[in-house]
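Handout, page 2. Input:
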Amino acid sequence: MTWFSLNYTGIYAIYRKEMARMARTMWQSVATPVITTVLYFVVFGRAIGSQIQHVDGVGYGAFIVPGLIMLTLLTQSVSNASIGIYFPKFTKTVYEVLSAPLSYAEAVFAYVGAAATKAILLALIILATATLFVPLHIHHPVWMVAFLVLTALAFSLFGFIIGIWADNFEQLAIVPALVMTPLTFLGGAFYSIDMLPQPWRTINMLNPVVYLVSGFRWSFYGSTDVGIGASLAFTGLFMAICLLVLWWIFCTGYRLKT
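Output:
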């Protein structure tokens, strides 16, 4: 399969359908994350920020902005991609997708691309909202965009896998609620892991979200808890693992053809 032989009409049809779902649920998809972000700034930025003036030379209100954006990006990427493929399974319309003149890779491009697009748009909205509360200066804008795109794609692939694996709505929600959100809170979204005492700092280095948040924060302020190379390496490794799992799923038909 080459770029010239892709079924762009089929990819765009699925992509447009998924994006239209976001438009139909604008209050839930856009307004709710923005309101949640405002509450984070009120609670963390004002209350805790009054006690912690600066972290690594950055005002606390500005320091938590990359963590807030990453929290939104991770949860929205996973939830959008998982519901995107789970709902056709639930309504049994997934067989129409499987029987359409569309390869598995093209279907993944469409669903994952739509989920990543929605997550990135929400992340940019959160970034714009943050500028209303704190002054921001992005030191490495190209790297910031790169981290946004790579993280959104990687975790949209992960969400797509969850959507295929889930047998009910409870399983669909359990990973974002009980895994992604706690890992993000513990991964330095609202503090520097250098502030943790040993051995908790070393233990927290096993948290994969630490590398994502640290790399993304580096693109804003040039400071990081871990090396930028480690952040990029983890993102690439996680994406490769997800692609390998999807290849196995489509080769075996796991929870798609039975």
